[in-house]
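User: Run a structure prediction on this.
Assistant: Running it now.
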Amino acid sequence: MDTIAAASELQFLPSSAEIRAVLAAQVAEDHKGKDILVLDLRGLSPLFDFFVIVTGTSRRHLHTLAEEIDAALVAQGDKRLSIQGYEASRWIVQDYGDVLVHVFDPDSRDYYALEDLWADARRVDWQRG
């Protein structure tokens, strides 16, 4: 395979950030998260490559989602750089550098409407086999 053909095939491989964002979404689904989205912000934001957005149904559910997602990403060698909102439990944000995980209660998700704010972002098909 020549260099140009090899380079063109590489552009179709998911990035490490995308793989980790998809993992976070799958873990959220495994723990009964609702309305899960993965948004590709590459080219739209210089700060993050992907947003994972998920809704939980209660304070305990939000905590479980945040903790299980973190455990799965840490098991893959990732490190959470910060977490915000854990105590208030209405919108928990976990920062993994190039991936940001947002865990909302239903009212906060509707109010902040991140998927509308970032409507130009490509939605990742995280459920693909």
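The longest strand covers residues 34-40.
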